[in-house]
Structure formats: C-alpha cells, structure tokens
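$ ./design --mode recover --in tokens.txt
reading tokens...
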C-alpha cells in the first residue's frame, strides 16, 4: 500500500543442484524502533543523570541531566571513554572495575563502602552515588548508570555528624550489621572512655561485662533489635578502664527501603548516679526498723522491706508489682485510689490521712490500725512515694486502757468529792453549831456562873460570924467549882476559835515560836525546875499565834506529866519529803498505847484533877490546829517510859534563816 517499514534482512546462500539460491529472512523492525525511541525518550526526560556505556567503556548514550550535571554538551561525550567523567586519582583502577562488572553483570550500587566522585568539564569534583544495571542490546551488553549528585546530602550528613558528635550527655554510636563500631561521638568518649580512633572498627561487645558476654547477651540484643526494630535495656556496662557504669540504652536497627539491615544506632545514657542513689535508698529502706514500701506513680509496690513483709504477713517478694491497695481493707480501697492520685498530683512529705483512723489488712484478712508517713522520692523516672507504716494496735490499746482508767479515776473523784461535800457539809454544820455553842457558853453560861459566885460571896459575908469551918470549906468548894467551870468554858471557846479566829499563813520561824511558848510557860518551868532544849528548828508556813499555842500545850503537858525526876523536854525537827516532822519528847510518865488515840478527844483525861490539874481539852485543840495546817499529830509512847508527840507542818516556800 506504499507505506515503508524499517526491516532487517538476513541472507543465506543455499546451494542446490540448480545453482546457488539466496534465502532472505526479513524482520519488521517497527516495533523495536518504537521501543528504542521510547527508551531514548524516557531516558532523555528522566530527572536523573543517566548514561550508557558499551563493554569497552565508551559512552554510547547520555541524557539531558547528564549534560547539566557534568557541564558537557553530549556531542563531546558520546564515543568518549567513561573515565573522562572520573577524577584523575581514581582513573587507573577504573577500567578494571568496569571489566569486573561486565564479567558478572547484575544491577547493583557502584563502589559499595567507598566514596565516589564525579568530574565536571570545568575540573570541579562532586560526590556521587551511582547505580549500575546491565542492558542487553543487539550488539552486546551495555551498562546503564544512574548518577546522583549527593553534595547536598553529604553536607546534611556532615552537619548531622557535627551535631551528634558534639553531644556529650549521650553516647551516640553507629554499628554496622555485625556490631562493629562505625561512628563515635563526644558523649561516647566521655561515658565509655575510648577515643574514636581506638574504638572504631572494634566490636561493641567490649562494652558488656564478661558475665554478659559469656551469656551471649550482646548478640541477643542485636537480634532482638533487628526483629523488633528497637530495644531499650538497662544494666551495668564496662568502661575502657574496666570500671562499670549503670547504662540506659536504646538500640535501633537501621534498614534501607527494601528492609535490608544497614546497621544499628545506639544511644546510651550514664545513669550511675541515679542507680547509686536508688541503691542507697534501697539499702536504707531494707535496713530500716520500720515497715516501708515504695510505690511507683501507678501505685504499684516496687519495693517492700522485711518489716513490711512481717507487718502484713507477706514475703516481701510477694508484695512486689502489686497495687498498694492489697494492703488496704476492702471498704477503703476505692477511695484510696483517688487519694493516692491526689498525693501524686501534689506530693509533699506528710502524715497520711490526718484526722482519720487508718487501717491495714494482712494477708490472712485481719485488719489493724496504722499510722503512715508519706515521702515523695524523685527518682529521675518520675515521683515515687516512700511510705513508712507503723502498727499502732498496742498504742490504741494503751490509749483506750488509759481512757478507761481516766474514766474510772474521774468517777472515783466525783464519788469522793460528793462524799467529801457531804462530810464537809456536816463539818461546816458542826462547826457552826460549835460556834453557836461557844457564843452561848461565853455569854449565857458565864452570866449564871458570875451570879453563883456573886451570891455565894454575899451569903458568906452576911453569915461570916456564924460560919463553922465545914461551911467555910463548902463555900471554898463552890468557888473552886465555879472557877473550874469558867476554865472549862474558856478552853471550849479556845477550841471553837481555832477555826473562827484563824489568820492567813505566813512563814514562821519555829525557833522564835519556841521562845514565845517557853516564855508563856515561864512560871511552871521554874516551879518544876524543868530542862527544855531544842535543836535548830525550821521555818514553816502557818498561823503564828496558833503555832505558839500548839507548842505551849505540848511542852506544858510534857512538864505536867513528869515522873519522879524533874521534867526534861527536847524539841527536834526532821525533814520528810517536803514537810517537817516536829517532835516534842519528854521523859515523863508515858501513855499506855491503848489510849494513844483517845487522848486527842475533847474533855478526855486519863487522870483526876487532883492527880494532875487540867480539863482534857489541850490535845484536842492541838489536833485541830495541826489539821488546820494540813498536818498530822500523833504520839509514840509506852507507859512509864516517856512520850514523844509528833506533828507535821509544811515548809515555808522560801526558807528564812
Ligand atoms: P489535860 O492535860 O488537861 O488533861 P490534855 O488534852 O492536854 O488534857 O491531855 C489529855 C490526857 O493525855 C492527859 O490527861 C494525860 O493523861 C495525857 N497526856 C497528855 N500529855 C501527856 C504527856 N506528855 N505524858 C503523859 N500523858 C500525857
């Protein structure tokens, strides 16, 4: 139909008996030409520099990008040896490498592990990455190479290296797929002690402890990282000088687009300080005599000491990794979680649950009251809480026992006070009666007595000439009786007035009081030739005139109740915890012990007025005075062997000499 087609013709002579014929095989090349054209067009429009060389290393094809990249017009490249684009220093080796590729042609990256450079027409060099793939053509094998200018990437890489190299806080290193160190930064040098030139090319295994190496840990870690992509681990690692440090590591497998392992990056932190701190804390907690547990921010028990185990009847290991709520009684558990979160939100050292009663629960379900101190601990992995727990069962028990005792005491005091109130009332009443009686005695009894004495004197005067001695004697007895009656009434008044005529207490020097009493007894002392002695007496707190009366009565009795010999009286004082014990000792007739109490009763006498004068009220007055001074009065004596009267008095607050 007149259209043309590109063809290829193969000619073959065929000899026959009839002569030589030609067999022509004709192939239509339209399709191939179209493909070739498309190939060229694709190549031409590719965004990457691409060129093709033949097996002799001559450039057969270049695209636009190649012209731009190397600065040659294609006319100057086609047919040239490829070495024109290779810097001088690499040229010699290049034909050999080229031939090697043609011997085993397969698509691959050129110069694996080496830095490649291209050479521009203007003589400048630039780093490149080259991909090679064999292309079968009719006239043999060609190589299609793709050339990428990696100046920019190199630059970035260098910057990245600079950045990483300068980091001192972290050891950042790269390992090749076998674990050999490829890069090393400042941090790595600081933490591990090796310089880059000492360690690059060596296996990373040397960072592990001999035990771990024997255990195959390093290889396992690499495998794990390869499988999972990333592994984080913590443990003791070894420095160049053999010392160890606590390391936290992040190992990441680096893979290319197709998933081939390119190597590993390894970032290591030195956490030795934190570890040591943690170990110290652990040791402190372990050896603490108090139950202690440590919680992580999620409320899990991460540490429990022996005491804590004993307190809650768990083995300490059983407590680990359990929520702390297993130690909290059921009914408080839900509330506890929010309280715990509240503490973590604003942690400060304090006593837990101020004002509330806290309880713990043992493994066997029994509950017991506790007191808990909380302490936040900053571990570097967040805030943890250290809780110290004390069983206060015993204290609670003691407290309640104490409360019971107090209540009991209270009850008794109330009861006793009521009793005292009653007896006080009675006492006040009897005192009032006594006062009334004394008043009556002094006025109403004295008057008739005066009448009796007056009338008997009138009678005696009127009949004095007619009186016989017996009547005379009767008049004398009337007068004696009345006098005695008056003495009794006066004594009774004195007795009653111990209370009503009392004065406020003051410091009283007993030495002076003794002198006053002795002066008042002057005549009876002289008459009886009594010998009165005293030791140095203290200053006491009291009512001075009453104390004079007290001593006067006791010394008076000691003189009155003497035996055959002239009376001898001795007064002494001894200190008995805060009080003074004053004794009045005589060598007189003594008192039978069966009368020791009765002699202090009012009007009680052991003798007739003829044997010893007296009204029997003296000791009653003494007892009243002493008891008003909050003291005691008693006698120690045996009949015929003298007597010692004792009384106690309070020492004056300030001693006066
Ligand atoms: P009175 O001396 O007026 O009899 P008191 O009350 O002073 O009264 O004494 C009561 C009794 O105690 C006395 O009658 C006496 O029998 C006995 N008595 C007191 N003091 C002594 C003493 N120092 N020695 C022996 N007996 C004493």
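writing sequence...
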């Amino acid at each position: 139909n007149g259209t043309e087609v590109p063809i290829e013709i193969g000619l073959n002579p065929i000899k026959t008996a009839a002569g030589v014929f030609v067999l022509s095989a004709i192939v239509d090349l339209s399709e191939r030409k179209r493909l070739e054209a498309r190939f060229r067009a694709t190549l031409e429009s590719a965004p990457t520099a691409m060129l093709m060389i033949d097996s002799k290393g001559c450039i057969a094809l270049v695209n636009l990008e190649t012209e731009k990249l190397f600065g040659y017009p294609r006319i100057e490249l086609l047919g040239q040896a490829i070495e024109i684009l290779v810097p001088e220093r690499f040229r010699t080796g290049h034909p050999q490498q080229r031939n090697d590729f043609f011997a085993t042609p397969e698509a691959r990256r050129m110069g694996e592990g080496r830095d490649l450079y291209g050479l521009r027409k203007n003589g400048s060099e630039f780093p490149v990455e080259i991909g090679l793939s064999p292309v079968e053509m009719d006239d043999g094998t060609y190589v299609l190479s793709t050339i990428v200018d990696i100046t920019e990437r190199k630059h970035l890489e260098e910057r990245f290296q600079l950045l990483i190299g300068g980091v001192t806080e972290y050891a950042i290193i790269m390992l090749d797929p076998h674990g050999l160190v490829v890069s090393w930064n400042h941090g790595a040098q600081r933490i591990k002690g090796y310089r880059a030139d000492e360690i690059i090319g060596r296996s990373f295994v040397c960072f592990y402890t001999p035990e771990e190496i024997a255990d195959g840990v390093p290889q396992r870690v690499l495998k794990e990282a390869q499988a999972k992509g990333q592994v984080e681990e913590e443990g003791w690692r070894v420095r160049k000088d053999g010392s160890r440090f606590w390391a936290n590591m992040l190992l990441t497998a680096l893979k290319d687009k197709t998933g081939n392992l390119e190597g590993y990056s390894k970032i290591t932190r030195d956490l030795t300080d934190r570890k040591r701190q943690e170990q110290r804390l652990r040791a402190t907690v372990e050896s603490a005599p108090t139950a202690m547990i440590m919680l992580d921010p999620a409320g899990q028990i991460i540490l429990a000491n022996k005491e804590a185990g004993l307190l809650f009847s768990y083995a300490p290991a059983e407590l680990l990794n359990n929520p702390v709520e297993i130690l909290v009684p059921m009914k408080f558990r839900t509330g506890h979680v929010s309280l715990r979160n509240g503490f973590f939100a604003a942690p400060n050292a304090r006593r837990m649950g101020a004002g509330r009663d806290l309880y713990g629960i043992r493994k066997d379900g029994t509950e017991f009251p506790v007191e808990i101190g909380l302490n936040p601990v900053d571990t570097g992995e967040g805030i943890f809480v250290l809780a110290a727990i004390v069983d206060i069962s015993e204290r609670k028990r003691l407290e309640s026992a104490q409360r019971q005792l107090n209540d009991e005491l209270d009850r008794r005091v109330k009861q006793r006070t009521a009793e005292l109130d009653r007896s006080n009332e009675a006492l006040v009443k009897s005192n009032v009666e006594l006062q009334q009686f004394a008043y009556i005695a002094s006025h109403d009894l004295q008057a008739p007595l005066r009448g009796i004495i007056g009338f008997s004197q009138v009678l005696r005067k009127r009949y004095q000439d007619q009186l016989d001695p017996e009547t005379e004697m009767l008049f004398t007895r009337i007068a004696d009786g009345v006098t005695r009656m008056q003495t009794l009434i006066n004594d009774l008044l004195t007795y009653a007035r111990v209370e009503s005529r009392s004065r406020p207490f003051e410091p009283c020097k007993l030495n002076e009081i003794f002198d006053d009493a002795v002066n008042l007894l002057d005549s009876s002392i002289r008459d009886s030739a009594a010998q009165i002695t005293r030791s140095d007496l203290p200053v006491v707190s009291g009512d001075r005139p009453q104390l004079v009366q007290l001593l006067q009565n006791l010394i008076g009795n000691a003189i009155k109740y003497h035996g055959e010999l002239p009376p001898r009286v001795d007064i002494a004082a001894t200190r008995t915890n805060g009080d003074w014990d004053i004794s009045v000792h005589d060598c007189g007739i003594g008192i039978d012990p069966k009368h020791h109490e009765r002699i202090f009763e009012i009007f009680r006498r052991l003798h007739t007025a003829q044997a010893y004068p007296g009204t029997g009220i003296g000791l009653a007055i003494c007892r009243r005075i002493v008891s008003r001074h909050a003291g005691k009065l008693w006698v120690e004596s045996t009949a015929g062997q003298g007597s010692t009267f004792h009384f106690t008095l309070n020492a004056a607050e300030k001693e006066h000499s």
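exit 0
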